[in-house]
Amino acid sequence: MHKVTTLNQFIIERQAEIPGATGEFSRLLHHIGIAAKKVHREVNKAGLVDILGKVGSINVQGEDQQKLDVYADKTFMDELRASGECCGVATEENQDIVVFEEGLSKDGKYIICMDPLDGSSNIDVNVSVGTIFSIYKRISPIGEPLVMEDFFQPGTEQVAAGYVIYGSSTMLVYTSGNGVNGFTLDTSIGEFCLSHPNMQTPESGKIYSINEGNYVNFPVGVKKYIKYCQEKDESTNRPYTSRYIGSLVADFHRNMLKGGVFLYPQTSSHPTGKLRLLYECNPMAFIAEQSGGLATDGEQRILEIKPEALHQRVPLYTGSKKMVQKVQEFLTFFN
Ligand code: AHG
Ligand code: MN
Ligand code: MN
Ligand code: MN
Q1: Dmax of the chain from CA atoms?
Q2: Ligand 4 centroid from CA 278, angstroms
């Protein structure tokens, strides 16, 4: 009989990895798991319940808020508050940080940056979407967390990071600094079960993932790299295959399993890139590096960028080590 390790069992077994953790981190991740199951339930009923489509409001990003954006934001917020271990949260759907005053939360050891529903444009067309989270220890001593001190920590300070992918199965993938592990939701018992221990990003691959609709305004190095991917050269396994889902979590997850590179450069509509540093690029960069991959903004490691704004956007090049290094070569040479 195959031994099943649930997320909760795994967290407790690995609790010793978190410096000074005495159960708080385990409780935090447990509540994230509960919220993920609730969002899974709504994503899988979408169409049967009133969860599709727009709310009719615009979020701080200037995007039409989807009902599932709002539902996921509230669900994760409620669970993080209930955990009592988190004193504040920054999410894509809230202009400012949300501070948890009540009860224990006020002195919670952790702060979280979160994209509650990633890939919103794919919700109504039944394509995989995700949730992304990034966990830091608070630096300010007690009381209300401070944006500058607690939320503008560089990605290297993350205690943990992870994502949920709501796809053909629902998986929770996370790292706490000692490798990356993937858990698949077994709906028959309502538990995330270890299915992908010690995930490794293949050093190279044949997939490049970019929205070529923005080609005209890409940096020259990116344009040259795309043509490089399309040239025939059997010795380097080219031409590559183009795959673009439009949900960062889904494109990233596929590349981590199969090998590949994801590129979101600066474009005319997003001159510093579209993806947000705090709750998309940093958590994915932590996971990329922890699984043997790379993540840069075209000049430096994503994790070393000093944040200056909650919704700051940066270019993102991430995935297989050798492929990201090749992109870097083109960006540097054609700069
Ligand atoms: P979100 O739905 O959380 O706003 O994120 C969408 C992001 C990301 O998931 C994806 O990689 C990217 O937007 C796709 O952007 P384009 O549609 O411009 O390619
Ligand atoms: Mn997103
Ligand atoms: Mn989102
Ligand atoms: Mn959005």
Answers
A1: 62
A2: 13
